[in-house]
Amino acid sequence: MEWKPDRQAKLPLYRQIAKRLEEQIVSGELPPGTPLPAERTLARRYGVNRGTVSAAYEELRASGLLQSMQGSGTWVSRYLWGVKQVPNWHAYTEGGAFLPTYPLLRRIQEASLNPDIINLAKAEPASAITPSLSVEEMSESIGSGIDLGYSHPKGNPALRERIAEHVREEYGILASPEEILVTSGAQQALYLISLCLLSPGDAIAMEGPSYAYSLPLFSSAGLRLYRLPMDQQGVAVEEIRALHQAHRIRMVFVNPTYQNPTGIVWSQSRRRRVLEICRELRIPLVEDDAYGILTLAGCRKPPAPIKALDEEGVVLYVNSLSKTMAPGLRIGWLIGPISVIDRLADAKRQMDFGTSSVSQQLAVALLERHRWRRQIDRVSHHLNRQSQTMRTALRKEMGGFMEWNSPQGSYHLWCRLHKPADEQELLDLAIREGVVFTPGGVYGAEPGWLRLTYSWESKERLEEGIRRLAKALESFC
Amino acid sequence: MEWKPDRQAKLPLYRQIAKRLEEQIVSGELPPGTPLPAERTLARRYGVNRGTVSAAYEELRASGLLQSMQGSGTWVSRYLWGVKQVPNWHAYTEGGAFLPTYPLLRRIQEASLNPDIINLAKAEPASAITPSLSVEEMSESIGSGIDLGYSHPKGNPALRERIAEHVREEYGILASPEEILVTSGAQQALYLISLCLLSPGDAIAMEGPSYAYSLPLFSSAGLRLYRLPMDQQGVAVEEIRALHQAHRIRMVFVNPTYQNPTGIVWSQSRRRRVLEICRELRIPLVEDDAYGILTLAGCRKPPAPIKALDEEGVVLYVNSLSKTMAPGLRIGWLIGPISVIDRLADAKRQMDFGTSSVSQQLAVALLERHRWRRQIDRVSHHLNRQSQTMRTALRKEMGGFMEWNSPQGSYHLWCRLHKPADEQELLDLAIREGVVFTPGGVYGAEPGWLRLTYSWESKERLEEGIRRLAKALESFC
Fold it and tell me: First CA to last CA across chain A, in angstroms?
């Protein structure tokens, strides 16, 4: 298919055309001296105005890639010594077994870098509530100086001991330090599982919608993804059996507490049942519990994680410090049978030679019981206030456009438009109005869903963000 | 092929047999109640003594997996409720697209965890010379507290600025912060390149022998590896052309200063030539410069990195803080064209969501000019002393067994046995004597080469290590 500029893309059309031509020149597809089509001709071919092509040519003339002369048209500069010789990087960056982030998510990420755009997409503790470790506290916890040597491949032994205590106290999970792998956040744990325990072509089942759909990780690993339908109690667990029969599911991924993005909390009986089924079918169950501790102040505590019920090592349990205390530390953990932990530790060693030993030493201090409790308390009050603010603003501005859930924990609302809209267009409009959110499609939801996070922005900016979003929706409808 | 215990393996034969049976029981291959062969029969089948099988059965009886009764033989315990139900983890850990570390290297890694074994395999700055950042120094460099939020996907902007200055001052490399990606050590940079810029089936060329052969990374990515022969001036660069013609080489990996493991320093003219050839063939050149700054005190400085000659963005340049200052920080960097950096940053974000922000904040302080210079000076004196110690010890103990090079920099000697020996056996013997080294085969060298590092141990332990190695060689010859 012939290349055309993408009208949905954020990049202006003339920049897209200039970029395309530049790639063709640098790659040698258009060698020095090649005449270019007349502006009018190229405009017709691409379905754009002549002025657009004109602007593209002008940009390339300015950077010395093109030359023009009145009456003899435009051609690739003959003085591009060396241009043909450099590697065609384009051919490399577009290849590779590992897939790039989906364009829609990349747009959200880019918009998030702009401080003028109000961020209803970020699921992080606001910097106001991340504990800032003072130098005194650090020195107290790490002694006179930081050890800068490599740590153990599975992670700093003191940290693994601390994590073992922590998960026993907080979640009732029994694990020895040998059954724990320290990872660079929950993200790396999922990555290691997809790459080391599964093979291309393997089928896996996960909640639909699910955070996991926003990760090209699984597609990069060549896995086939199957959706498990959900209701307010959790996944329709018996579906696992049918999927297993039909597709030989090899692993099940779930996020049973404050599921991202729906906010659903699985009932106790669904938790038991999924474990029984996986045990019976002999399929490992991966439990992502990154949000599980974030009960909003005043709401009921959720049931214990599935891992706490797991006596036979069926569950690989994933959690981290990123959503509660310190995203930048990049400290997560994976709990599972020793043979699995050893295999993943070996792979991690090959990929990055282990997690920062400084981060690990600080994590021991952050997980100290009193500091942890104080922080969780702070976060749950913060999140409760923030969610109230957002819901009040929504009631005021959005009643006509959509409905939303009443979250018991975590960072976001899950909202459904009364009239489904093109997500890409809506996101475009919203960004133009100065607010960014996550369309449900990113998580594999059907059209018309939005995820709005309330954790990052101040009260005023949250309210203003909702106003801006309402404006985008208005001009849309 | 039927399974047999491996007589070369480190694990005792009876443990291998017990492990094998355990796997068969846990996987359900041998369900509860299955009778096992008589000890004599199994011993014959595996070619071992009856006592060996007896010991294996005993171990499994102790752990409740087997039952025996006088006169009625041995069977899989009938009381293993649940055993059949758990996932067959073995089938998962043995699968996966990502290959485990080579067994020989795993043995070295295991031996390295034992403090009684003298380590001539570790290529790290000894803890005596890694700078221990005091709390005062930290507070000076990072202000009142550490920012625990996520950093920029390409890395902390202040750190990238500092790296840009650093490589300009130290190596004459011109790069903007936008052309720099902060990675978890040089290792992760190589991993990202292999996974994101190359596709399964692609051919790459590298020095033979090379550190890269010790990494299953490239095989995991499905790449075909071709060796470039070397002499004392560096790689026979014209060979790249022939390889390119024969195999469509898509990338060239080199380590031109204090090459690991040979210690070779490429001449200035070879550096120019490899760049010209890659430019002409339009193949990217990956330059691993992790050891380049480690000139032994009193030796001549090596030529500048190839990247300093690269005006057209042909070279991807990789370096880190691991070999000079702080392995545990896990801070490395990759310098290349912006499009490549952006692609790799995106992949890194998916895999681990970025490098520890604490590590990055500390790295800014460590790269501060005066601290850096002081540290390099310290390391180069240390390495010089250590290499003298090792060479003196070798002359005293080893003249009859092998010859070795005279390194100008870095961490190790490259030694050749007068009589090639089975590497696995020699390593076994050495470990039994209480010393560990790296056989050349790990780097793809022909039989008879050894890499001995002198950086990690004290003077006394280095000398003792060489004595132990001589003893192993003696009993070998």
Answer: 34
